[in-house]
């Protein structure tokens, strides 16, 4: 007897998730280097700013090696590099490279001028960023010459946004494409703004991980939870800093596009200094009388089991938040498209970092509980915290609008709508809420 062929309806088959632009291995490679340097630094007390910068190297270098040697991202067609044809001669590409360097250096000069004019870059943590940029300017200027000359000989189309901007710089505006120039300037604005911020906060996050003694960390659940949260935030900041540094075509981590929508920029910038609205005293300040950053420990004091459970939830949410950044490998960046991620926590949610971050704030600060007993402050804190969560929802929507120009993102978004856990849960709830038909008489 022949076995009957079993046919499965198409809608019942397990649909394969769209491929991720980033491998899981590259993020793990960076994690191995970062954890190794963290262990060495805790053993020898390397907690200063220079050790913090070394953590960026310890994380970034393994990711570069993994990307090139294992993932071979330089061979990806999205880099725009032609490895199969003989490179152009230097004479053929030199004119293009000179114009591109003019555009690139003019861009850097404009960024330097804005750093110099903006007063907030010369105060507090930003002073460290300005110091790092000052020491880096000369070497970057020199290294950009052989890098651009080498790259232009191999790019299929070397006339990018820097070249078009360079045409304006040398007085040949008629040859420049205004849209390409705007894209170039948006991308570099993102990098300049967020890289300065990330470098500014790297030392502080690093010190919070290295300085506490082991005895202090394990002395109680609050200290243990606090150190684990600080460690995970350090991972997030380190990976993000690497991401803003490594915007390079040979790593396929270049910026494909920067968000062109004003609403997207507004939603992102109000979450970062100097435009931040959520700080103490700001329009969206939800911290009034909330017992500080460890409000949960204040309110649950005397309830050790509940405190342990709450601390575990906070660490779990921070771990999810950090994982969402690690999943980017060397490609993390706000307001940009650098490849579509579908693996890790992005197989569960399109915005796992925003979801985890907001849940963490609600559970950590408990803004609806206040130490002064003022009901008005309780209501205000609750409403303003809800408004902050609304800002992150707004950010998510503007990011989706930007990324939806890429068919790869549309395919991922459609897959998530069909197979994402949250979408499945909502569909199940919707089905359960439907009225059941009356039995036939």
What does this protein structure show overall?
The structure is a single chain. The chain is mainly α. The protein has one domain (24-429). The chain is 62% helix and 1% strand. The chain has 15 helices and two strands. It has a two-stranded antiparallel ribbon. The longest helix is centred in the middle third of the chain and has 33 residues, at 178-210. It is globular, with a radius of gyration of 25 Å. The two termini are 46 Å apart. The model is unreliable at 1-12 and 436-441 (pLDDT under 50).
Helix content: 55-70%
Distance between the termini: 46 Å
Q: How many domains?
A: 1
Question: What is the N-to-C succession of helices and strands?
Answer: HHHHHHHHEHHHEHHHH
Cα radius of gyration in angstroms: 25 Å
Poorly predicted regions are 1-12, 436-441
Give the percentage of residues in beta strands. Answer: under 5%
Q: In which order are the strands of the major sheet placed?
A: 1-2
Largest sheet, if any? Answer: 2 strands, antiparallel
Q: Provide mean pLDDT, rounded.
A: 94
Number of helices: 15
Brief rundown of the structure:
This protein is mostly helical. It is built from 15 helices and 2 strands.
Task: Describe the secondary structure blueprint for this structure.
Blueprint: H1 24-44, H2 49-69, H3 90-117, H4 126-152, H5 161-169, H6 178-210, H7 214-217, H8 221-245, E1 257-258, H9 262-269, H10 295-299, H11 304-326, E2 336-337, H12 352-365, H13 375-403, H14 407-419, H15 421-433
Antiparallel strand pairs: 1-2
Helix pairs in contact: 1-2, 2-6, 2-8, 3-4, 3-5, 4-6, 5-6, 6-8, 8-11, 9-13, 11-12, 12-13
């Amino acid at each position: 007897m022949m076995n009957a062929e079993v046919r499965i309806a198409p809608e019942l088959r397990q649909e394969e998730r769209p491929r991720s632009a980033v491998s899981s291995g590259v993020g793990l490679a960076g994690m191995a280097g970062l954890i190794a340097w963290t262990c060495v630094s805790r053993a020898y007390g390397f907690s200063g700013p220079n050790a913090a910068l070394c953590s960026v190297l310890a994380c970034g270098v393994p990711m570069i090696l993994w990307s090139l040697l294992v993932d071979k991202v330089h061979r990806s067609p999205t880099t725009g590099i032609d490895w199969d044809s003989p490179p152009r001669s230097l004479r053929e590409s030199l004119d293009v490279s000179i114009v591109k360097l003019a555009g690139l250096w003019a861009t850097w000069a404009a960024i330097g001028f804005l750093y110099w004019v903006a007063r907030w870059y010369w105060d507090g943590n930003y002073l460290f960023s300005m110091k790092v940029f000052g020491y880096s300017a000369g070497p970057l200027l020199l290294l950009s010459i052989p890098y651009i000359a080498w790259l232009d000989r191999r790019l299929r189309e070397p006339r990018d946004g820097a070249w078009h901007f360079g045409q304006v710089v040398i007085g040949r505006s008629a040859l420049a494409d205004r849209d390409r120039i705007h894209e170039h300037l948006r991308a570099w604005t993102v990098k300049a703004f967020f890289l300065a911020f990330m470098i500014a906060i790297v030392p502080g996050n690093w010190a919070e991980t290295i300085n506490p003694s082991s005895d202090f960390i394990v002395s109680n659940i609050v200290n243990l939870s606090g150190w684990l949260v600080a460690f995970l935030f350090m991972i997030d900041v380190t990976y993000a800093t690497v991401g803003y540094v490594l915007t390079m075509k040979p790593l396929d981590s270049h910026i494909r596009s920067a968000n062109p929508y004003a609403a997207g920029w507004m939603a992102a910038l109000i979450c970062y200094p100097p435009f931040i609205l959520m700080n103490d005293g700001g329009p969206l300040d939800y911290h009034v009388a909330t017992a500080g950053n460890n409000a949960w420990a204040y309110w649950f004091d005397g309830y050790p089991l509940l405190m342990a459970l709450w601390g575990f939830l906070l660490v779990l949410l921070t771990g999810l938040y950090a994982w969402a950044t690690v999943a980017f490998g060397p490609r993390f960046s706000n307001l940009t498209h650098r490849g579509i991620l579908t693996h890790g926590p992005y197989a569960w949610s399109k915005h796992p970092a925003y979801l985890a971050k907001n849940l963490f704030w609600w559970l950590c600060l408990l803004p609806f509980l206040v130490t002064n007993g003022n009901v008005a402050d309780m209501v205000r804190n609750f409403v303003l915290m809800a408004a902050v969560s609304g800002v992150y929802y707004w950010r998510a929507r503007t990011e989706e609008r930007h990324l939806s120009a890429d068919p790869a993102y549309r395919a991922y978004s459609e897959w998530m709508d069909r197979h994402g856990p949250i979408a499945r849960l909502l569909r199940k709830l919707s089905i359960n809420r439907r009225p059941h038909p009356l039995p036939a008489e």
